[in-house]
Specification:
CATH class: Alpha Beta
Helix content: 25-40%
CATH topology: Muramoyl-pentapeptide Carboxypeptidase, domain 2
Order of helices and strands: HHEEEHEHEHHEEHEEHE
Distance between the termini: 48 Å
Number of helices: 8
Largest sheet: 6 strands, mixed
Radius of gyration: 17 Å
Strand content: 15-25%
Oligomer: single chain
Length: 231
């Protein structure tokens, strides 16, 4: 079987934009909390786009943070030397909209209507269903002594081998992906198997994955104390 066929079959099993559009939201007014480092959980904002909104801190909903701490404990039981590292949490809704419109414009010559929305969503989530602007999604990896484990690709390296179950990575990378996935799901997170690093709790993706009646969080504009940018 050709690689392209394998990737196609893997993608067919993933949830997409059409699966999320009708998911209801029963919005919870949970606060946004910065992730404070513990022995097995750290946060490092690797990009600069969120600095006007949250500085160098990574923010998530309070229940998301509780579950991250739970996942970190599970990981520590497996190996005390391992640590969960969150490199992205809340994303400003305005940033999500800008990214989506950028890629939508690039794809507008190839697709139209719902196909255009679905194709763009595969690159950047449609703002109305995106988990990051709801404070519900995290991009995360496992580190040992400050260095990431081998996951087959770098985090945020957008190639087809970022599919969680790509068979074209090493056995070590495959095992590390499964350790991460198992720890996060044991704490109640839903995986997105198109990106081995992306997990969420309380958003539409989570609700659909676990067949819940509704999602818990809406997308919002949030600015951390001491910051004022909504641009």
């Amino acid at each position: 079987m050709k690689k392209s066929e394998v990737y196609r079959l893997l993608e067919e099993k993933m949830l997409g934009y059409a699966d999320y559009i009708d998911v209801l939201v029963k919005a919870e007014s949970e606060p946004f909390i910065p992730i404070v480092a513990t022995n097995n959980l750290v946060a490092k904002q690797i990009g600069t786009d969120m600095r006007p909104y949250t500085g160098s801190d990574v923010y998530v909903r309070s229940s998301v943070l509780c579950r991250l701490e739970r996942a970190a404990k599970v990981l520590a039981q497996y190996d005390k030397r391992l640590c969960l590292e969150v490199i992205y949490g809340y994303r400003a809704l305005s940033i999500q909209k800008q990214l989506f419109e950028k890629y939508k414009k690039q794809l507008s010559g190839q697709y139209s209507g719902e196909e255009l929305m679905a194709a763009t969503h595969r690159l950047v989530a449609v703002p109305d269903v995106a988990g990051h602007p709801a404070g519900a999604a995290v991009d995360i990896q496992i580190v040992r002594d400050g260095s990431p484990l081998d996951f087959g690709t770098s985090i945020h390296e957008f190639v087809l081998d970022t599919f969680t179950f790509s068979p074209f990575i090493s056995k070590e990378a495959w095992a590390n992906r499964q350790i991460l996935r198992s720890a996060m799901m044991s704490a109640g997170f839903a995986p997105f198997d198109g990106e081995w690093w992306h997990f969420s709790y309380g958003d539409k993706e989570w609700a659909k994955y676990y067949r819940r009646d509704y999602a818990l969080y809406n997308q919002v504009n949030f600015v951390a104390p001491g910051f004022s940018s909504l641009t």
